[in-house]
Each structure stands twice: as C-alpha cells, then as structure tokens.
Amino acid sequence: MTESFYGTNQQIYLFKQDPDHTFRAATVGSGLEAINTMNAGVYDVIPLDFDRDGDEDLLVGFADGVTPLQLWRNEVGTQKSWLSLTLAGGGPPEHANRAGIGARIEVTAGGVTQTREVYAGPGQHAPQAPLAQQFGLGSATVIDRIRVRWPNPARSVIERTNIPVNRFLRLREVCTVAGDPTGLLVSRGGADLVLTWDDPGVSGLAWNVYRGSVPDPAGWGPALAPWVGDADTATPGIQYRDAGAAGGSTALFYLVSAVDDCGERAR
Ligand SMILES: [Ca+2]
Ligand SMILES: [Ca+2]
Prior knowledge:
This protein is mainly beta. The protein has one helix spanning 33-37; strands at residues 2-3, 12-13, 15-17, 23-25, 42-48, 57-62, 70-72, 81-88, 104-109, 112-117, 133-138, 142-149, 157-164, 167-172, 185-189, 192-197, 206-212, 225-228, 238-242, 253-260, 263-264. It has a four-stranded antiparallel sheet with strand order 10-9-12-13, with no helix packed on it. The protein has a four-stranded antiparallel sheet with strand order 18-17-20-21, with no helix packed on it. The chain has a three-stranded antiparallel sheet with strand order 5-6-7, with no helix packed on it. The radius of gyration is 23 Å and the shape is elongated. It starts with a strand and ends with a strand. One calcium ion is lined by residues 53, 55, 74-75, 77-78.
C-alpha cells in the first residue's frame, strides 16, 4: 500500500505481492478507491492496528486542508493468520534503544520468510506509524521461527521457534527466563489426570506441559501441550487435563515449564 504525492495525483494505491515478488494493482475492488474519488489529495497513509484485532487498519490524511482524517477499518485481515510483534530493547537508560529502531526481524511460517526492519518515520512528512510489526501469515497455524537481530554493537540475535499464530508478542533484547511453576498438583478426574498449578498473574506467560514414561525428562519428546494458558478463569490456578491418562497401566511423569517472550528454561 502506498500513496503518490507527486503532481496532482495524490492518490492511494493498494498492491498485492505475488510469490515471485512482483506486485500487481489491487486498489479497484478493495474499497479504497472511494478515497481517490473524493479528490481531496491523499497526503499520508499510516497502517496501524487501532482496534487491536491483529490486522492493520489505515489512517488517511488529506492535503486539501478541509477533509478530516479518515480511519479505515480492516474487516478481512483476521480471516488469515497473523502476528503482531513488538520489540523492547535492553541496556542502561543512557544507552537504551527501547523501541529497537534498526532491528531486523525475520518471521518464517508456512514455508515463507518475511523480513522487516524497525524504523522511525517513513520519510517525507515523517509521520510515525506504531512500532508493532504486523505480519500476515496466510493459512499457517504455527510460526516456525522468529529471528531478531538487534542493533547493538555485537549484533546479538535471539530466536524463538514453534510459536502459535494469532498473538501479540513482545520480545526483549535482554531477558530472564520465567521460573518454574509453584503449587503443582496432579489429581484424578474420572479417566483423566488433571494438573493444577498456581497462576502467577503475569501477562504474556504461558506453559509447556511435557509427559514421559521414564523419570528423566532428557529422553522425553516435544511438549504434550504447548503454550497452555488459563482457559478456565472460574477455577483458581491453571489446569491442564490429560484426557484418558488415568486409564493407562504405565507410570507417567509430568513436567510443567514456563515459557514467555524470553523463551523457556532448559530442562
Ligand atoms: Ca485491526
Ligand atoms: Ca480487523
């Protein structure tokens, strides 16, 4: 999506990118052509997710001096998968780049890698769009990898893998991985085993539940249930129900591990 400021054109254009990286015009039929028929002179277009549903809406300004700002709500963006990623730079206050300006982000999902750089102001007129980076992920159900290269002297890199789609994620340049759960209990509910642990009330925190048939977790497979949250707000703590597990004849061992935007503690 772009605008043309030159000459008397001053119109908005929407383009669709094809897999071969070329673009084709998509303005007609998008609804945005109504902006151009006003002939008010499109002056600035800022993509921003004002309603916090995960897709980019548009704030449109005009050059004629009388037409008020327009806010165009995206009603189709969340029909596909998405990610909203915000960076938080670390470091001492006098040297910090909290917004991560200059960071390079690569998001890989569904066999496609998208690259973004966080920047301040797009040039002429220099309006500042929100710093959250929106990624459209098509029909992907999981993000294979997020890679951030920070603009610090060492160009340090962080990576996160296997992250569910459709979420607002904040990644920090310097992180301390969340601790272990407290108050972990296993109880029997019919044929199921129910794990319960304390909810520390920290936003952005989720839990991976692992299960093995031997005591040493080193030999276990991937998480039985990744990114478990508090789905049942009526019951204190966080619950995970392992359906049918109580009916088996073998011993089961569980491990619950906190995972946040810093990743997960090694086990
Ligand atoms: Ca939106
Ligand atoms: Ca929307």
